[in-house]
Amino acid sequence: MDLATLANTIWSELSRAQADREHPWRTPVLASVDSEGLPQARSVVLRKVCSDTQTLQIYTDSRSPKVKQLQTSAQIQLVFWSRSLNWQLRVSAQAKISRRGPDVDAAWQQVKQSPARQDYLSPLAPGDTLDTELHKKPSNTHHLAIISATVTKMDWLSLSPAGHQRAEISGNTLRWLSP
Ligand SMILES: Cc1cc2nc3c(=O)[nH]c(=O)nc-3n(C[C@H](O)[C@H](O)[C@H](O)COP(=O)(O)O)c2cc1C
Predict the structure, then answer these.
(1) What pLDDT digit, counting tens, does each position of 20-32 carry?
(2) Which intervals hold domain Pyridoxamine 5'-phosphate oxidase Alr4036 family FMN-binding (predicted)?
(3) Ligand 1, residues 33, 44, 73: which to mutate, most atoms within 8 A of Cβ?
(4) What proportion of the chain, given as a percentage, has pLDDT over 90?
């Protein structure tokens, strides 16, 4: 496979992951940096993929600690691992948070029909200490926000007994690396 074909294959695999709940790339780890400069990593669901704009979307609660972190430090990394492909993909990206607008409205129309709506209507912010009384009162307004990650670099690693392979895709620069 040449590098251009590899880049296309990676994007089609990401598109498949967005559509297929069972795809191992559906739940990457999102790493950010907190206000003390410490790493923070957590699993998220890949919601939307656009190869034209080189963006990946994740839904979150606008009150969650990660949103504050991303507003201060927008540089993130998403790490995907697929046991079936034997591929790891480390995606460096610039994150942008949207709390309102047509994209958030469309996302909410979809999420509100699923059990996940409760997460975004909770009167408690993620990470709040549990308060039973408050917990009983659902909020009328949702707190869904979209994290749009614009890809700046991809580091692809393929594990194989025949020999590992590694490549970097950074804008129009594609190159093979030593694994
Ligand atoms: C499989 C899985 C998928 C998850 N997907 C999301 C998600 O799409 N968005 C999200 O905000 N949190 C998601 N979470 C919860 C986060 O991992 C995390 O616990 C939560 O968002 C709080 O993170 P924070 O305190 O760094 O903001 C998911 C957790 C798991 C285990």
Answers:
(1) 999 999 999 999 9
(2) 12-97
(3) 44
(4) 90
